[in-house]
Amino acid sequence: MSGREPVLAVFDREKDYTLRLVEYARSRKNLPFEVCGFTEESAFENFAKSKKPDLLLIRPDGEGEILTRVKAEKILLLDDERYEGTGAYPSVRKYQSAKLLLKEVTDFYSASRKAESLNAAHIRSCDVYAVYSPAGGCRKTSFALTLAKVLSRERAVLYINLENHSALAEVAGEAFEGSFGELLYFIRLHKAGFAGKLARVCVSSQNLDLAPPPDNYGDICAAKGEEWLRLLGTVRSECGYEAVVLDLGDGIQDLYDVLDTALRVFVPLREDPVAKAKYKAFEEGIRRWGNPALADRLEPLYLPFLAVAKTGREYLEGLAWSRMGDTVRALLRVQE
Q1: 213 phi, psi to nearest 5 deg
Q2: N or C: where does the chain have the smaller number of CB atoms within 10 Å of the terminal CB?
Q3: b/e per residue, 8-46, with b = 16+ CB within 10 A?
Q4: Residue 192: partners with Cβ closer than 8 Å, 6 or more residues away
């Protein structure tokens, strides 16, 4: 659709709603598309024949017959909360503020376009980096966040924290609008629109997206290994990221299988006999019950002291240029 501004078409027979939404959208200066609204089928179909919409926002009770006659690049349903959806298309909640609705629509469109452009250009595959430690107090999360931040200098990166009590919102200084349990729900029920859902609940910091942490650790413990693998496969194939950093806790079922999906597996440790003994037991457990080849790929690390006292975005920036950042850059220079 190059050579013209992308088009968002809104079709809803509720005239007042459609008029207000389109007027508000046109008052915004930063939307990535032209917005056109329709309440009558004939007018919408005539428009679509001459200018195929890049994105169509449509009421579920109107999409059946119309979509057999009108084509659109991408489709979102306007869900009024009483309608559960057909499963064929992702949806957004109709009765919310126009600002939030358009943010969801824009995030969905941007995520879809990002995935398409990356796949079309064959820039690179999506590499998974796993960070896990059998020992606590080893600066594991600081290392994982630093790794994600350094990688994001050159790649589109997704950071996923799956610890109990991660405190990610406080550490990053961000308020998440959803939880990781919602993403697991999409995967568990094979619901369409995962990329759009992920884009809506993530917090972005330049080229780095932070996935929301779990608000109920029971969701993490209950997820089966096959669901983790399906989630990672969906992120890699549909969401347009070039790297994923997994910050893993002990509640993951089939942990060895999840670790085996990673290009590199970093294991931060402390310089004390207990931590070293736990690492030895962890490695032996993988060899005995898991995959000996995975055990050979483990990279135990003894990390430098981190002298960053701030939280929020300044904290994330501080990580990249701290001694921890130097350690990460040195590790990444090793040929992967």
Answers
A1: -75, 165
A2: C
A3: bbbbbeeeebbeebbeebeeeeebebbbbbbbeeeebee
A4: 87, 88, 89, 90
CA atoms of 152 and 51, how far apart (whole Å): 37
Average pLDDT, the chain: 83
- Of the candidates 74, 153, 84, the residue with the CA atom closest to the CA atom of residue 107: 74
Please report the domains of the chain, with CATH numbers, ordered by start residue. 7-120 (3.40.50.10850), 127-333 (3.40.50.300)
- The 10s digit of each residue's pLDDT in 156-197 is 999 999 987 777 777 776 778 788 888 988 888 887 788 888
Strand partners, 128: 244
- What number of other Cβ atoms are within 10 A of residue 122's Cβ? 7
Q: What is the pLDDT of residue 116?
A: 59
The stretches of the chain forming alpha helices (DSSP H) are 15-27, 41-50, 63-69, 98-121, 140-151, 168-172, 180-188, 194-201, 217-222, 225-238, 255-260, 273-289, 292-297, 313-320, 323-333
Q: Considering the entire predicted model, what is its pTM?
A: 0.65
Residue carrying structure tokens 């993530």: 202
Alpha-carbon distance 184 to 182, whole Å? 5
Q: pLDDT for 95-148, tens place per residue?
A: 888 888 888 888 787 777 665 555 544 435 899 999 999 988 888 999 999 999
Q: Which of 101, 81, 87 is nearest to 10 (CA)?
A: 101
What is the bridge-based pairing of β-strands 55-58 and 7-11?
A: parallel
Burial status of residue 76 (CB atoms within 10 A of its CB: 0-12, 13-18, 19 or more): buried
- Torsion over CA: 18, 23, 26, 29 (sign): negative
Compute how many other C-beta atoms are within 10 angstroms of the C-beta atom of residue 313: 13
CA 291: distance to chain centroid? 28
